[in-house]
């Protein structure tokens, strides 16, 4: 009993230490997993290392490599330009379009990559008289929705971790839940921040002089608008995820050139990847998305070896190490019975439904201030005891927990929210900061009530 409690305290303490000292969570977590496993759990070092999630490593490396090639050869930029050009001057649908674009980019391996839409969307919102809060929430919700795609980090960590502990969670179901929840939130943002009023007051004028992104080698903005001395761990993750665009300039739109042969092949590979995942899932073949990404990436690399070589440096090794360290430590906790002890404690709450609600509340609250990916990797295994009785469906609890941990990220205490605040005009920042704080913290409560009610309750009937 004492050793289990001590191990759990070390686990929580490492999160706090890594946050305060701004060091890589995975490094400390993996080292601590070895120490706790050997000295407290009486495990061999080989047994501790066996807990490192190889399958999730393959997923993360394959996905980030595949989409890094698509970004390096300019295909992603071409897709964005074409989509924005189709919008015209319809102010009402602009937030919805940016939701879709951000979701698409976030689905390409790294959710935080969707932040590249922020310096484009915010100036366009001002140009067309759209409340910047509406545009910011559209981008934030798109990032959350796309992040749970089967090819993106939140989705990979959530369903990958669930599968590793024996919970059958379909990646497409998880994505559908995240997409549905964020569409509801987008609709609420339209209602609360004047979106439907845009139908009555359409502004004229094209996108010809709109602010477009200029890629630079500057550091990304700090993770908090008041933090100017250094970058937090989440900001470093954002930088490694490819978030390099936080500078805008006014440039005239030039006629778009046609896609070259490499970009056309990339589009075909992207379509092939999506089609393969859907087809295999429909036939219940449980597709290995990481292997599929490696296969299509191999084709793209052979077509253009230069971008293939460049993309290797863009693989998200930082996240691989972070997730690997956390899950390795959780494996030690499971081996020594600490997870079962938490399950017994959760059962004392009263009913599995209330326990599920509590763990979703914890996930949302902590994720509003800390790493969403870290929370997912840590809390998904700890939710196992809640579904052991069979009273509630495991997939429902895990899907609810995952989305609850993501929709709070628009709070200004996280990378997403801080970026939204930092990319509006200085005089608007106090209002946006205040509104995003209220929205983000309200999601700590609204999210669990909405998702537990919609997913978990029906499984109990």
TrEMBL record:
Keywords: Membrane, Transmembrane, Transmembrane helix. The chain crosses the membrane at residues 26-42, 54-72, 92-116, 137-160, 172-193, 264-283, 317-333, 353-380, 392-416, 436-457. Pfam families: MatC_N. Residues 1-147 form the Dicarboxylate carrier MatC N-terminal domain. This is Di/tricarboxylate transporter.
